[in-house]
Q: What sequence folds into this?
């Protein structure tokens, strides 16, 4: 976690042709979104933890079990770090 944001650096398998094609697309900005799979451990209804328009509880603790580079993220905020918003 850096400045309140979950950050990660991808690690590509250099011996795998598909991984190298994905890496090339990431470097060119063609693929610029991520997706994570996680199990929720704790939630909060504290208004101080909510953003404008939020209607559900805030996840305050989770176990991440998967991370992927994707072409279309399930969460449109997954591309914000690059300055793009889908909604």
A:
């Amino acid at each position: 976690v850096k400045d309140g944001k979950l950050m990660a650096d991808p690690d590509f398998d250099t011996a795998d042709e598909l991984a190298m094609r994905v890496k090339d697309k990431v470097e060119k900005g063609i693929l610029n979104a991520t997706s994570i799979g996680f199990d929720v451990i704790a939630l909060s209804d504290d208004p101080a933890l909510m953003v404008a328009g939020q209607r559900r509880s805030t996840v305050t603790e989770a176990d991440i079990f998967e991370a992927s580079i994707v072409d279309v993220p399930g969460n449109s905020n997954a591309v914000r770090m690059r300055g793009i918003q889908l909604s």
User: Anything to note?
Assistant: Helices lie at 17-28.
